[in-house]
Design goal:
Layout: E1 2-3, E2 28-35, E3 38-39, E4 43-46, H1 57-61, E5 64-66, E6 69-73, E7 79-82, H2 84-97, H3 105-118, E8 130-139, E9 152-161, E10 170-173, H4 191-206, E11 211-215, E12 223-226, E13 229-235, E14 238-241, H5 252-263, E15 267-270, H6 275-283, E16 287-294, E17 298-301, E18 304-307, E19 310-313, H7 321-334, E20 344-346
Parallel strand pairs: 1-4, 10-11, 10-18, 14-15
Antiparallel strand pairs: 2-3, 2-4, 2-9, 5-8, 6-7, 6-8, 7-20, 8-9, 11-12, 12-13, 13-14, 13-16, 16-17, 18-19
Helix pairs in contact: 5-7
The structure holds pyridoxal-5'-phosphate.
Pyridoxal-5'-phosphate is lined by residues 68, 225, 228-230, 249, 251-254, 293-295.
């Protein structure tokens, strides 16, 4: 792979004690272009602006998909990637839905390894640090006809992150706006899904809520996700999470928590959940926990849920499933707990 290293590293001028999520980028990026029906050779370049004509199709029609994944450094200074095969698979599932050509496994995996090996120092070993990895593909053809592009660009950039204290998590059930309808692109990590969520989220923020709980597009009766996390409820001692569908993003954290919970002998149900079921469980005292799962936060407890002006306060539990599963997952990711699932892989390049 062609590699052009940066002549001025930002490592020594980056304040690693202050890393607002997603705003600091490592020295290099991987880039690969699709033209004339095929992907070209990937190369590694210094992180920096990319040429983009105003007629680039992504700017007009949002034909773009992305992934979010994390790398951690273990105590032996090795970089561990978490379930990278799942991110690769999901990127191509998203690409297919957006009519974007799939990226081949070798370009993705080798590119990731070489990029991370080169920017190794950006992944810190100290507790709480990780390297957030953002692979994405967008329509780079120059044409303003509303049609799928003939040219695409695949890029991987990385961003060092520290543990951030998410603070209180007060969520409100959204019964008007929809994140994703049946038959839409909700199961894909399509850029437009996120653009469409910002306005309703901003309105919820203005009312003092950190996030929304999205409900189904048809009846607004069933729970789908919370913000950009999959959502979970502990009713009595059973964990319930909405079954996957074409309007829900199949989270890799969600899938990992299903496995970990079951291996901890916790009963897990993946099925439709009515809002009324959660309200009833709250009223009769069986709603013990609610939490979200996603790469950025792993597991994030929800403190309150507001439904039609009524606030349900979820007290923290001594035997919290959320905290137990979060510790196990983070331990595996960081290499401090034996990975019995073969979820982690070392960067070898
Ligand atoms: C809409 C949405 N749901 C769920 C998730 C959680 O997915 P994962 O656990 O793979 O990060 C994300 C974040 O990536 C998301 O954007």
């Amino acid at each position: 792979m062609k590699v052009r290293k940066t002549s001025i590293s930002k490592l020594n001028t980056t304040d690693f004690s202050n890393l607002p999520f997603g705003t600091v980028f490592s020295d290099h990026m991987l880039i690969c272009n699709y033209k004339d029906g095929k992907w070209g050779e990937a190369k590694i370049l210094p992180y920096g602006p990319i040429p983009m004509p105003p007629g680039a199709q992504v700017l007009h029609y949002g034909q773009s998909v992305f992934e979010g994944m994390k790398a951690f450094k273990n105590n032996s200074n090795e970089i561990l990637l978490f379930r990278k095969e799942e991110n690769f698979k999901r990127l191509n599932q998203s690409a297919e839905r957006l009519s974007i050509p799939e990226i081949d496994e070798e370009t993705f995996m080798n590119g990731l390894d070489e990029l991370l090996a080169l920017d190794n120092a950006w992944c810190k070993k100290e507790e709480g640090y990780s390297l957030y990895i953002r692979p994405f593909i967008f329509a780079s053809g120059e044409c303003v006809k509303a049609s799928a592009s003939y040219e695409y660009t695949f890029i991987i950039i990385t961003s060092p992150t520290t543990k951030y204290y998410a603070g209180e998590m007060n969520v409100v059930v959204e019964e008007h706006y929809t994140r994703a309808p049946q038959g839409g692109v909700g199961y894909a990590k399509a850029a437009g899904n996120y653009a469409a969520s910002f306005y309703p989220t901003k309105q919820a923020n203005a009312k003092g809520f950190q996030q929304l709980i999205w409900t189904d597009a048809k009846e607004h009766k069933y729970i789908e996700e919370s913000g950009t996390m999959n959502i979970w409820f502990r009713i009595d001692d059973t964990l319930i999470t909405p079954a996957l569908s074409d309007s829900i993003l199949g989270g890799i954290t969600r899938d990992s928590i299903v496995t970990l919970a079951e291996d901890n002998s916790i009963k897990v149900e993946q099925r439709k959940i009515l809002i009324s079921e959660v309200v009833d469980a709250y009223k009769n005292g069986t709603l013990k926990e609610a939490f979200g799962t996603g790469t950025a936060v792993t597991v994030n407890p929800i403190n309150t849920i507001t439904f039609r002006e009524k606030r349900m306060v979820i007290e923290s539990q001594k035997d919290s499933f959320a905290i137990k599963l979060k510790q196990q997952l983070q331990g595996i990711q960081k290499g401090s707990i034996v990975d019995a699932y073969d979820w982690t892989s070392k960067v070898t390049a």
